[in-house]
Amino acid sequence: MTTEQASEPPAEHEPPAEHEPPAEHEPPAEHGRGPDGRPPLEMLLELQDLDTRIAQLQHRRAALSERQELASLTAALGDVTRRAAEVQGSRAELVERQQALEADIGATAARREALEQRMYAARGTPARDLQVMDEEIQNLRHRRDHLEDAELEVMVALEPLDAELASLDADGARLGAQAGHVRAALVEAEGELDEELAVQVGARAAVASSLPEELRSRYESLRVRLGGTGAARLVGSRCSGCHLELPSMEVDRIRRLPPGTVVTCEQCGRILVPTATPPAA
Ligand SMILES: [Zn+2]
User: Tens digit of pLDDT for each residue in 70-99?
Assistant: First the structure.
């Protein structure tokens, strides 16, 4: 604890506060007054309340249910997209096979037509040759039947894939629309919290800059070290930081100290401010 006394800020910017009380007894070390004449420890509690509020807002922002919901929807949309790509892949293979079969069917038909024309146009073709041509035509007919059966099988196999793709498309559209709504809700909720955060952060900056430097930096380092709470109220005999009861002798000692003396909770190490006021909710 230093004996440096924080004082009124330089009067060049603003006149001295009107309500500066007369210094009847020496103010304890570290007990300058803020620009508005409020005791630093009172301002410290306000700073702590603002920091608590800011931490709550940040927690609420991080824990917005829309964020989780959006993540789930995005994951589901990813699953749908992946499955659709798989089905498209299988479908493309079948379509390729169907096209090859159709090309084959076309070539078979052309070959048969050519043979038939030759057969019926040619006069004086030896019977043996005609028989050979006729046999080939029969073979080509069988081949066509076989190819058409194969194509039918491919078309039958395509049906469920097309149905699944249509269903996946519908799922994708539905999930996409839902994600759009949730994203908009998230942006709105974040915006509201950000607005309030900006107000609280601004208020915090004003209060922090009014505190004596040593008290402020001591508070800041305690706050970082002790889970966001650097200053606590002594309510009755209980520390609002660690929620433990202080020994009654210690409470008596603290309450008898000159107002504004900076003391710390011997159990949690936080700056302890005697007050009857419970912490703001
Ligand atoms: Zn404590």
Answer: 999 999 999 999 999 999 999 999 999 999
Tokens encoding 254 = 């603290």
268 CA distance to ligand 1 middle (Å): 4
> For residue 232, is it left (φ>0), alpha (ψ between -120 and 50) or beta?
beta
CA angle 51, 56, 58 (to 5 degrees): 95
- Domain 65-205 grouped into CATH 3.40.1280.10: no
Q: Ligand 1 centre from 247 Cα, in Å? A: 12
Residues 38-70 pLDDT 10s? 899 999 999 999 999 999 999 999 999 999 999
- Would you state the structure tokens that stand for residue 193, as one six-digit string? 């919290």
CA of 269 to the centre of ligand 1 (A): 6
Burial of 233 from C-beta contacts in 10 A (0-12 / 13-18 / 19+) = buried
CA separation for the pair 177, 180 (Å, rounded): 5
pLDDT at 23 > cutoff 50: no
Distance 227 CA to ligand 1 centre (A): 12
* pTM of the predicted structure, to 2 decimals: 0.67
Please state, in angstroms and rounded to a whole number, the distance separating the CA atoms of residues 246 and 215.
23
Instruction: Tell how far the Cα of 194 is from the centroid of ligand 1, in angstroms.
Output: 31
- Separation of 31 CA from ligand 1 center, angstroms? 22
pLDDT in tens, 216-252: 999 999 999 999 999 999 999 999 999 999 999 999 9
- Contact between 234 and 266 (Cβ < 8 Å): no
Q: Spell out the alpha helix ranges (H) of the chain.
A: 40-62, 65-121, 127-210, 213-225, 248-256
